[in-house]
Amino acid sequence: MSKNYDIKDLNLAEQGRKRMDWAEKEMPVLRLIRERFEAERPLEGIRVSACLHVTSETGNLMRTLAIGGAEVVLVASNPLSTQDDVAAALVAYEEIPVFAIKGESNDVYYQHIKAGLDHNPQITMDDGADLVHGVLKERPDLIAGMYGSTEETTTGVIRLRAMAKDGVLTFPVIAVNDSDTKHLFDNRYGTGQSTLDGIIRATNILLAGKTFVVGGYGYCSRGIAERARGLGANVIVTEIDPVKALEATMDGYRVMTMEQAAAYADFIVTATGNKHVIDQRAYATMKDGCVICNSGHFNVEIDIPALEAMSLEKRQPRTFIDQYWLKDGRKINLLGEGRLINLASAEGHPSAVMDMSFANQALASEFLVRNHGKLSNGVHSLPKDLDVEIAALKLKAMGIDIDVLTAEQVEYLNSWQEGT
């Protein structure tokens, strides 16, 4: 095998294959799509560059794309999220070039992004829009050959809509995150469980009885709040949107500003997609020993430079914890360098929810191929019928039956003549 990859250690491949096989048992929808892809080869000869978290679930998506005929290259979408054994397994057993190393520097991270672009992709698959950003900023020569892109996460969709608004997004992008079978489940149940898993692994601190602040009340944040309350924490939500703030209040949470909440907090978690959600104003009111972390895609949600400027020194009492000693004697504990804590110190979302998310990714790539030249430039949602198909397959795999409308009921719903 020629060395067209950059990973930590090829000798980790066997453990990575076991990890992917274990995850695959919880991914029945993607398995059914893979079986169809193997028979139909809808991606035959299509060059795909994927910038995703390199996990066991992602490994199974890469297998699916490759079996469908795609020529795939995978790069990391976060310096701390790579599972090195999975990267090795994809290279050794699937012959998929991977450029990802857990703990890679920012320079190496962008070298790996460049490697994904050097594949001359016809489809890019993003988790945060870094490949699309690279195409537009550094490799505009690729645009003429692009079928389009798919985007996995809320943060990436925010970036893409900004690109479209500025008129620079010159090819179609499927906002996979907008699919109901993605954001209603992955964002809420996946982020909720995996974020708490990451915090507990990093700190081993009991959450019951603690005050737990959640920045934002979108689908990711409400999942985190729900799981924290389930573990016995007293949850406070911060928001900028009056409707979401009202919803959080009606769901039984205290709602206040971040500056107010920080004074009570034992833990603060952000998941908003915005920058400096925790800033100098919040640091000024935090209790000694407060634990802060982020579950949004980029590490800008926590203003780390401001924290460093307020500190005399930094220590590391445990792996994944940077403890900042402030000039006034307080200590603030930052988890996972401010990066996604569910992937920095844990394993990311459970396979069962990624099954639906990556089913969306696989079908979105097929949709781009089938509709090449028909879609306008900009951000598109995956068609509703594909969303429904994924949900139906998931229910079938879980052994759950649901009702079907009778002909009489269909007629009633489509008619206005029948009165009360």
Automatic annotation (TrEMBL):
**Source organism, top-level taxon:** Bacteria
Task: State the pathway, as annotated in the record.
Answer: Amino-acid biosynthesis; L-homocysteine biosynthesis; L-homocysteine from S-adenosyl-L-homocysteine: step 1/1
Q: Which residues bind NAD(+)?
A: 153-155, 187, 218-223, 239, 274, 295-297, 342, 349
> Required co-factor?
NAD(+)
Q: Which residues form the S-adenosyl-L-homocysteine hydrolase NAD binding domain?
A: 187-348
Q: Where in the cell is it found?
A: Cytoplasm
Write out the entry's keywords from A to Z.
Answer: Cytoplasm, Hydrolase, NAD, One-carbon metabolism
Task: Extract one GO BP annotation from the record.
Answer: one-carbon metabolic process
Q: Which GO terms describe its cellular component?
A: cytosol
Q: Is NAD tagged as a keyword?
A: yes
Q: Which GO terms describe its molecular function?
A: adenosylhomocysteinase activity
EC number(s) of the enzyme?
3.13.2.1
**Kind of enzyme, top EC level?**
hydrolase
Q: Which InterPro entries match?
A: Adenosylhomocyst_ase-like_sf, Adenosylhomocysteinase-like, Ado_hCys_hydrolase_NAD-bd, NAD(P)-bd_dom_sf, S-Ado-L-homoCys_hydrolase_CS
Protein's UniProt keywords contain Nucleotide-binding: no
Reactions it catalyzes: S-adenosyl-L-homocysteine + H2O = L-homocysteine + adenosine
User: Which PROSITE patterns does this entry report, sorted A to Z?
Assistant: ADOHCYASE_1
Entry's SUPFAM superfamilies? Formate/glycerate dehydrogenase catalytic domain-like (SSF52283), NAD(P)-binding Rossmann-fold domains (SSF51735)
The job of this chain, per UniProt, is described as: May play a key role in the regulation of the intracellular concentration of adenosylhomocysteine.
Record-linked NCBIfam families: ahcY, PRK05476.2-3
User: What family does the database annotate?
Assistant: Belongs to the adenosylhomocysteinase family.
Q: What is this protein called?
A: Adenosylhomocysteinase
**Gene that specifies this protein:** ahcY
